[in-house]
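Trying the structure run again after the queue cleared.
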Amino acid sequence: MFFSCLVILTVLSWFNFKIAVQGFTSLSLISSQWMHRQYRTTRREHFISLFPYQNDKVRFHDIEESRSAAASGDSKSKSDPSDTITEKEVSDEKYPCHRRHLCIITESNACDTMQEVQRTFETLRSALGTHNDFGIDMISIRVNPPSNQLGQKPNSFIRQNEEFHQRLVYLASQIMNLKRKHQEHPFYNEYRVVINDINNLQAAIEANVDGVHVKEKDAVQIPYIRSVFQGMNPTRHVTIGISAHSASVALHHFEMYQPNYIFVGTCYLTQSHPEKGVEDLEGPELPGLVKQLIFQHMTSKHNDTEIDRISPPIIFAIGGIEMNNCHEPVAHGADGVAVIRSVMQSSDPARAVQEIIQCMYGIASNSKE
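Done. Tokens:
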């Protein structure tokens, strides 16, 4: 009898001990997860205080609310005119939470050879750092496919295109693998990866990138591209962008296709469009004008509740953008800039990214010290 009781007590003690250990383990796990979330939150708040471009954008309807208050004769608006928000102030120091966006575009020869593929990848990896350190918003892989040379045999041209396609898929896959590695970092800053041109749609699918950039002449294909991506994963957010060289075309694209971003320009002389002279440039003012027209369209067609559900496109100024002029389109109202050689041909891509972002915020660079 005594022995039986001893056995029962031993078994009960073992179960109690096991339950206690499991409870302690669960409590430790919950505690560590909570501490990790608190650490990330605290670190992010500190990061935002150092780099305000990491914060969220000002909502469009906040501007309209301020206008309405001023128009209705609100006493606060009359006594303090500085409280009335205008489109220009979306980019001003008064609203440091308005982010300046940066897109890095690859050079057009990035997939000409495997050496160029590797050089492009190493440059982007250096620019992004360990977790997209400085907050690049997008990588756009823009490359030119092989051209059919006069007298070239059809089989040779087909082989060149197949090899080009393989190099493009490889480059894009490497960048996406790098992004997945960055996502494991506790301070990761989100960025999107897109491939240029609907002709490279198959490569975009094979590399599983975030979206496609569409040429202005191919805008009608945007619904088809979205359907292809969403057909593979209905819950996935697809990034579709487009180019525009006039305000009317940009507004039409927004109304018809709701792109996630728009490249607007050519703002300055650039090697990407050597055929354009000074008189052919759209200038640094056009991106801001496009943003203003889209804002006016949204506020005239939709109420506040509807505007909350609409994501206005990010307006990138493009064309000849460098560190010494990138602040100009932003000052005129652009959301940010897209650059190529300023980063891709830099001996220190990470430093180049940092200086461009600082320049967009009007922070003096120390590169000449």
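The two ends are 89 Å apart (CA to CA). Worth checking whether this holds up in the mutant runs.
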